[in-house]
Design goal:
Strand 9 and strand 10 form a beta hairpin. With 365 residues, this protein is mostly beta strands. It is globular and about 55 Å long. The chain has a five-stranded mixed β-sheet, with no helix packed on it. Strands 8-9-10-11 form a four-stranded antiparallel β-sheet, with no helix packed on it. It has two helices and 31 strands. The protein starts with a helix and ends in a 6-residue tail after the last strand.
Length: 365
């Protein structure tokens, strides 16, 4: 009997030990087992500091996206774009035809092509070949803005740059003509984000002229006004709008110089440091499926629960580098499983419900 108990104890000890070694991902207190992916890289990274930590997915992650197959894509500065498919972490760069190292926006069209916005124009990837679009294709501004590639409900591709918004014409592309044309109904704005709302309106956040709303259906109505502008006259501070998002109630949220705004179609409601936001120079905003609002700023990241009555300082939770997240957050994304991802100035991060933890090439994924 003692021998059997000893064997059973040894067996359980081994199982628990193995299970502990397989723990590789935490979200909201749950542990998910994922093996470390194989890393595939065809070219050495360029433009990185000599002391760059080679264990990081990348030091600067400017964009995050999940495609229709479930693969996660990470747009970097200095290392092109990386694709994570659980089994492998593959870096695409010069040998693959992706002649750029800075990726600011990622999206997927209805044909399954991946679109990448870079500092050298736009790239389309069909799974085999990267095709670059630049000035020769009608894209007169090559610097694509962060989160500024939209594939709308009709399948049309919109690209925001520091000098205006462009539309892609697949028919012209197939005939060898100019694939992109400037969207003339907008002024030459410095685009900071593009989003389509539930009603089909397309929103353009700019860093110099406020927010613009384009109504598709209005152009079909006699005398319809297709473009509306929300700017200083409607109390948008300094005409600056950064990140943009829509909540379940249809409110549009965007960052401004000193905080964030909620727009319900009639009224702008501002939230600033006085209400509980942390940091200065507010950059990005994302709304979780649960309704939680995350706001990034210089020096901190704020989690905001707008579900209760306000004002309420407890609705705001401010995270600083002491909570595990590098202060310079450059991208946020929620995947199809509900996991939140952050790209910061020191790599890739996730959140376990209390603290942020860093995801390196070998995990924990």
């Amino acid at each position: 009997m003692k021998l059997n108990k000893l064997l059973l104890f040894s067996f359980l000890t081994v199982c628990i030990s193995c299970y502990g070694q397989e723990k590789s991902s935490a979200y909201n207190g749950l542990i998910i087992s994922k093996p470390s992916p194989k890393v595939i890289r065809n070219v050495k990274a360029v433009g990185l500091a000599p002391d760059f930590d080679t264990t990081l997915v990348s030091q600067y992650i400017r964009s995050i996206f999940q495609d229709s197959k479930g693969n996660l894509w990470f747009g970097t500065i200095g290392e092109g774009v990386a694709r994570y498919d659980v089994k492998t972490l593959t870096y695409f760069s010069n040998p693959d035809g992706f002649i750029t190292n800075s990726v600011f926006a990622i999206n997927e069209d209805k044909q399954g092509n991946l679109w990448f916005g870079t500092d050298q124009g736009v790239y389309k990837y069909d799974g085999k070949v990267f095709r670059n679009y630049g000035k020769k294709d009608g894209l007169n501004h090559l610097d694509i803005s962060r989160k500024s590639i939209l594939v709308d409900k009709s399948g049309a591709v919109w690209v925001g740059t520091h000098g205006g918004v462009y539309q892609y014409d697949p028919l012209a592309d197939s005939k060898g003509g100019q694939s992109f044309s400037l969207f003339q109904q907008l002024p030459p704005i410095n685009v900071a984000g593009i989003m389509e709302d539930k009603s089909g309106n397309i929103w353009f956040a700019s860093s110099n002229k406020g927010v613009f709303r384009y109504d598709h259906s209005a152009s079909l109505r006699s005398g319809g006004k297709t473009i509306a502008n929300i700017a200083d006259k409607e109390q948008l501070g300094e005409n600056y709008a950064g990140g943009i998002a829509e909540d379940k109630a249809g409110n549009i949220w965007f960052t401004m110089k000193n905080g964030i705004c909620k727009y319900d179609g009639k009224t702008l409601t501002e939230y600033t440091a006085k209400d509980g936001l942390g940091g200065t120079e507010f950059w990005g905003i994302i709304i979780e499926q649960s309704g939680i609002v995350w706001i990034t700023a210089r020096g901190s990241t704020t989690r905001f629960d707008p579900s209760g009555p306000l004002p309420n300082p407890k609705a705001f939770t401010v995270f600083t580098p002491a909570d595990g997240l590098n202060c310079c957050v450059q991208s946020m994304f929620q995947d199809k499983s509900g996991n939140m991802w952050w790209g910061a100035g020191q790599g890739l991060y996730r959140f376990n419900g209390t603290r942020f933890y860093q995801v390196k090439k070998n995990g924990p994924w």
